[in-house]
Write a structure and sequence with these properties.
Blueprint (H helix, E strand, L loop, with lengths): L1 H9 L2 H12 L3 H8 L3 H8 L8 H15 L25 H16 L2 E5 L6 H8 L5 E5 L6 H12 L9 H14 L4 E5 L11 H11 L4 E6 L2 H9 L1 H4 L4 E4 L5 H7 L4 E2 L1 H12 L6 H18 L3 E2 L1 H9 L4
Parallel strand pairs: 1-4, 1-5, 2-3, 3-4, 6-7
Helix pairs in contact: 2-5, 3-4, 6-7, 8-9, 14-15, 14-16, 15-16
Amino acid sequence: MEALNTYKAEKTLAEQMNERLAELKMTKAEAALKMNYSRAALSQYLNGKYASDPTELEKKVREFLEASGGMEGGQAPEGGKAGILKKKVEFFESRDFVQTIGVCQACQEYMGLGIIVGKSGQGKTHALKKYAELPRVAYIECDDTMACRDLVEAIENGIGLPRGYGGTIWKRVNRIREFFNTNEGFLLIIDEADKLINKYTQKKMEILRGIFDQSDVGIVIAGEPRLETELKGNLARFANRMDFYYKLKGLSKNEVADYLEGYEVEEAAMGEMISRATNTQSGCFRLLDRTLNNVLRILKQKGETRITMKIVSEASDMMML
């Protein structure tokens, strides 16, 4: 035992982290996302090639090791097994979540142009906002009322350009290009991009294409399925520049079961929750999540932990379905 303790003490922080990632079967990119730190910086550090001051990064690594290894011998009781209701997970790493994050990582690393499409409620915005917590990522959420000037201003604000410069749209777009060419490694995420296109004009999308063509920056545009249709039908010059693409598929039955793991759910209630997530007409992640939120409120009020069909029905009465 003493020899083992000596061996452990001699390991570097990077070695401990590499071993822990192997145990967890987790990639460096996934770990960087959880640590809210640059994937490239973490990879360089773990490979012994990090040239900058490692103080902040090593603090993040220690926090990760403590958090990931702190459950041994002290796991929290699962919901429904000791009268304790399990807390809902902050974010769920579904297949769609992982693939969305993967497109963002690829576009940022290779300065590529990517598109992510999915129906409302499938979780694309949730995943994009999570990735946007990383350094050198600017997230813009569009809406139907945006004019060209509004889009340019939103990008300026997103990357932190000082206000008050003014000027024509052309001049302001040039300043954005100069910023990206001077500050390499940025990713620009344009969410709800389908709202930038209508039958009268595609100028806002042409602004984005111009930024991409003349800047060292990765761009991800995301929106509902009509975004893909519009690009292919009316914006061929934009569509043929796409390097990465993913279309969200929605939760599978197994993923719903994983999402509800730790709760005591009767069979009928589980079937209803699966239907709310996977129904091709009205099901989606958002509906499942909203239902679970209300279910947990009711259980907390009643002092119960078992999710029954009756509880799900009560939760449904609180919602507009």
